[in-house]
Description:
The chain is α+β, with helices and mostly antiparallel strands. It is about 35% helix and about 25% strand.
Amino acid sequence: MFQAATISAGDKPGFYRELVQQLEGLLHGERDAIANAANLSALLYEAMPALNWTGFYLMRGGELVLGPFQGKPACVRIPVGRGVCGTAAARRETVLVEDVHAFPGHIACDAASRSELVVPLIRDGEVIGVIDLDSPEPGRFDSEDRVGIEAVARLYLEASDRF
């Protein structure tokens, strides 16, 4: 059984190194993409400070559909190109937003969210979903978080079969 440990690193690169090590242990031997997404959502929500939502949106029929998550109930469907998640999927690149109220077309699933980080999941050249992190703190995410969550996304994709 996996037991999450408190991450003790004093800097963000160290935090993400420890987080990836824990994630490797959590995903070891399990290939189911949905089970791994659920556990990854829970690990991020527990390990990362100042989050109010973390989870997955999965590509279904040309739109993003809510997948495993931690936090308050969320928007179920997001068109590609709309909101932060849809923009990340359309651009096929990570989108980091310091203040979601200043982001044109932001979709407010939780009015408490102030900043957001969305990493697209790309397999065999195809966007299959996104990992979405929301915080009630403006400016919560920075370039170190982007690099760290992109590493988490790569590990998730390597460890999981296609949904």
